[in-house]
Specification:
Blueprint (H helix, E strand, L loop, with lengths): L30 H15 L6 H12 L13 H9 L3 H17 L22 H5 L12 H8 L3 H11 L13 H13 L13 E11 L2 E13 L2 E3 L4 E3 L2 E6 L1 E5 L15 E5 L5 H19 L9 E5 L10 H7 L6 E5 L9 H14 L13 H14 L3 H20 L13 H7 L10 H13 L2 H6 L1
Parallel strand pairs: 1-8, 8-9
Antiparallel strand pairs: 1-2, 2-5, 3-4, 6-7
Helix pairs in contact: 1-3, 2-3, 2-4, 3-4, 8-13, 8-15, 9-10, 11-12, 11-13, 13-15
Length: 468
């Protein structure tokens, strides 16, 4: 039997050929890379809406891919734009359709701005029913926004926005013209209120006084000048309570004693004391009120721990009382206290706390109807005095504290504009900080404002500084 031929001998293992690893070929540029680019652009932009600059850049991108002489785009132009800017193809199509519509209408500039502005978010509440009640409210009860808001039942900020939408904007703030000397005096005053750490002084030992004429809206002939005094609210450790900052308000009136018969009994209908308003308030009247009324009220109401340091009565620039007045100095040193006077720089009403915010609630209280008096006739002067006292008592601790913070912000802005009064405070968000519990006691002055103030004061000649 013939034997089968033997197969080929197996090759040694060392001689076996080893296949080289296959090298992955690079994928040609195609849809996969375009998708990666779109994903990268999407992550970079996030979920926010396109800005106007991004919309304009997308339109310029599409205009370079337009068929010349037509409004048609070349093939894959919409897809390329979507990948380039990280948006959906429908977004690119809508933008191009709006641009084509503008071109067909003959517009010089294509209208591609976002249409979401003013059309998103919670819908505005309809206040038409409340605003209709304004016609039924007497004029005497809607002399101010605060009084009108109380009568209608709308928050005063909302009412202000509603009136601003219908009315023409006006500017009624009067800022006096300042000389170079006035600006230097303002800068020196602001610099004296900044501590070495950059924080403003807390002003816990400063009492701001101011005088103002008040009159009833329905009786303009009854006009009285009042002097009000406030300090910054603070904790009183001796009384274990908060000092609300309200020192008091006093009218410039003169008492008239009525001579009554012996048989006539005193009654409410025939009061024993009547007051007459002073038609002209002199310097002596103001000096007497500061010495006899305000200084004793400070000793009575201010926290007792302030007796250790000086307490300053902040006057306006009128300088009704000079700091070296012997009569005032004697009254200020009674009972161990050290009460001194200091003056504001000339033409600086923006540095007065009472002029900033605190007189507005008092003026609003004058436009409200007086409380019932049980059939007792009340004179216009008595009604005016009680209304001013009621408005002053309605001031909250937060309102007074916010006025002091606004004063610090005004001084910072003054330093930034080199002593001028042409500045805007801008939003301060005090209510939000108060709600969060992060409202500061003192504002940290901006370093740029400090440098600007220091540069002006350093450049001023010594002759000018000596005259201040």
């Amino acid at each position: 039997m013939a034997e089968l031929p033997a197969g080929p001998e197996p090759m040694p293992e060392a001689l076996l050929s080893i296949a080289e690893p296959a090298v992955a070929a690079k994928d040609p540029p195609g849809p996969a890379h375009a998708a990666d680019k779109k994903t990268s652009a999407w992550k970079e932009r996030g979920s926010r809406n396109l800005t106007y600059e991004e919309r304009r850049a997308m339109l310029d991108f599409l205009m370079t891919r337009r068929v010349e002489g037509t409004t048609k785009l070349v093939r894959h132009a919409v897809t390329d734009a979507a990948n380039e800017f990280g948006v959906d193809r429908r977004t690119v199509s809508r933008l191009w359709k709006r641009a084509v519509q503008s071109l067909e209408n003959g517009d010089e500039v294509c209208d591609i701005a976002s249409r979401k502005v003013g059309r998103r978010g919670r819908r505005k509440r309809d206040w038409s029913a409340e605003l209709e009640r304004v016609k039924e409210i007497p004029l005497a009860h809607r002399g101010s926004i605060r009084a009108l808001a109380t009568a209608v039942g709308i928050p005063k900020t909302t009412l202000y926005e509603l009136l601003k939408e219908d009315g023409n904007p006006t500017i009624n703030s009067i800022k006096p013209s300042l000389t170079d000397k006035n600006k230097l005096e303002r800068l020196r005053y602001c610099a004296s209120k900044v501590r070495p750490s950059g924080l403003f002084d807390d002003m816990h030992n400063v009492v701001h006084v101011n005088i103002k004429w008040f009159s009833l809206p329905r009786d303009k002939k009854t006009k009285v000048m009042f002097m009000a005094a406030v300090a910054r609210p603070q904790w009183d450790p001796q009384k274990n309570e908060y000092f609300d900052g309200k020192i008091g308000t006093w009218p410039f009136v003169r008492e008239q004693v009525q001579v009554q018969d012996v048989d006539t009994k005193p009654s409410i209908e025939t009061p024993e004391r009547t007051f007459v308003a002073l038609e002209m308030v002199t310097k002596d009247d103001v000096q007497r009120m500061i010495t006899e009324l305000i200084v004793p009220a400070i000793r009575q109401k201010m926290p007792a721990h302030l007796i250790q340091g000086p307490i300053y009565i902040q006057q306006d620039s009128a300088k009704i009382r000079s700091p070296g007045d012997a009569t005032f100095a004697e009254e200020g040193r009674k009972e161990g206290w050290n009460i001194l006077l200091q003056n504001l720089p000339p033409y600086s009403p923006d540095f007065t706390v009472m002029d900033n915010n605190l007189f507005k609630p008092i003026q609003a209280a004058l436009k409200l109807p007086p409380p019932p008096t049980l059939g007792v006739s009340v004179s216009g002067l008595s009604e005016l005095m009680s209304s001013v006292e009621r408005g002053f008592a309605s001031l909250s601790r937060d309102q007074i504290n916010d006025s002091f913070l606004s004063l610090q912000k005004a001084m910072e802005c003054t330093m930034r504009v080199q002593g001028s009064n042409t500045y805007e405070l801008g939003p301060t968000c005090k209510e939000q900080l108060q709600f969060d519990g992060s409202l500061p006691v003192s504002i940290l002055c901006d370093s740029d404002a400090i440098l600007a103030c220091r540069a002006v004061l350093d450049d001023a000649t010594e002759e000018v500084l000596d005259t201040l």
